[in-house]
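Methods: holo model generation. Sequences were used as deposited, without trimming of termini or removal of tags, and paired with ligand SMILES retrieved from the corresponding compound records. Each pair was processed once, and we did not select among multiple samples. The sequence and pyridoxal-5'-phosphate SMILES for this entry were:
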Amino acid sequence: MRYVSTRGSAPALDFEGATLAGLASDGGLYVPAAWPSFSTDEIAAMAGLSYADTAVAVMAPFVGDALTREELRALCVEAYGRFDHAAVTPLVQLDERNWLLELFHGPTLAFKDVALQLLGLLFERFLSTRDTHLTVIGATSGDTGSAAIDALAGRAKVDIFMLHPAGRVSDVQRRQMTTVLSPNVHNIAIDGSFDDAQAMVKAMFAHQSFAGRFQLSAVNSINWARLMAQIVYYFYAAVRLGAPGRPVAFSVPTGNFGDVFAGYVASRMGLPIAKLLVATNVNDILHRALSSGDYSVGTVTPTAAPSMDIQVSSNFERLLFDLHGRDGIALAGTMHGFEQSKRLAIPQAMVGEAAGLFASARIDPDGMALAMRKAWQTSGQLLDPHTAIGLAAAHAADLPADVPVVTLATAHPAKFRDAVERGTGQRPILPLRIGDLFDREERFDTVPATLDSVETYIAERAVPIAVGA
Ligand SMILES: Cc1ncc(COP(=O)(O)O)c(C=O)c1O
Ligand SMILES: N[C@@H](CCOP(=O)(O)O)C(=O)O
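and the model returned the structure below.
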């Protein structure tokens, strides 16, 4: 499998190259040169497979010959062996048509573990045959950071530098990052939003005199391998609910458009998805884009669902690439214009094309709190704020009555104890695996939110590319 950049001019890479590179050198994102697809018989054959075996079946076409099937299986068994539920991502029925897909049974209690546990192992495997030290730089609104740090802490040949917006992540999220004291983990708090942190990460990749000194890589969903691993649970859930014989809808709480883009890929691969509901909070750029074509950046409003307090949704570029007929050079022009003006008017023909699969909803704080309360009172389920936004969008959706709707439960309610308590009167208990989180020592540095300051901080600590390498 070859990977091409959404901006058309970076060199095409194989799976290993795209995984280690993270971001394409022309500022674009890597996508497979063509979408692989499964026949209905191949999808039907996934019924009854374990999560790890489903993962192998779904990911093998993307991995190509970078790993043998046995090697890929060994990595999946190891990655998903760290989840505390035998089904890895269990389905929970709420009522006749609504289901939750619990994606928070991994080590850091959010859906990010599903991909990052595997990505940590992929990095280790690919680095084992190279004389390379990886400098991973990432931005987090709370969950990617802790999952990536858990996956990479203590691994040889990798340092991770994780930027988070100071004061804008929950106390559990912050501590899950800052209490990991491995020497290869570097937590950086910046005074700004997640978007500011994400923009700095992209700027570092683009800044030749900095990027040329280190072997940079990414753990955000700009890295294709992240999304690839997230495609798996769409197949796993849909097959359990009757696919390929019955279409299924998914409601996805959305920020960076990564998780829902993985659903889009599942649909391109042949999974019968009736609708993908893109659920946003009041930071609603994606709802505006998909409902009216208005992809223009507003100011970020901090909310009780901080992991979705995002305006610039990196992976939307991957959808735009397909909507532009995969013309990377044309899209590069569009994206450069967007980067300058912070506005993009998506042509109505493209909005119409996207509407075949996507619908969207903007859920305000009252709508979120109502969904949280209702789930507690009617089903005894505590939902984190992000999942509550997804479920509110599922309730609001106009779908045929016989289509099951699966809301992705993206985080454990204990990660957002204050918001859940405000919504339901119940304070979720920290699961055993992080029960002592508030007794652990914290370590992080606060760095001014300028590119120069962050680059200097990293350069003083990262391992440079060896001279002559
Ligand atoms: C708990 C939670 N829900 C939803 C999202 C949004 O996911 P995505 O950025 O893939 O759209 C995030 C952050 O990414 C998250 O941490
Ligand atoms: N909500 C995310 C933001 C980064 O998203 P990613 O999926 O691109 O890594 C977070 O929790 O950090």
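Residues 257 and 345 are 18 Å apart (CA to CA).
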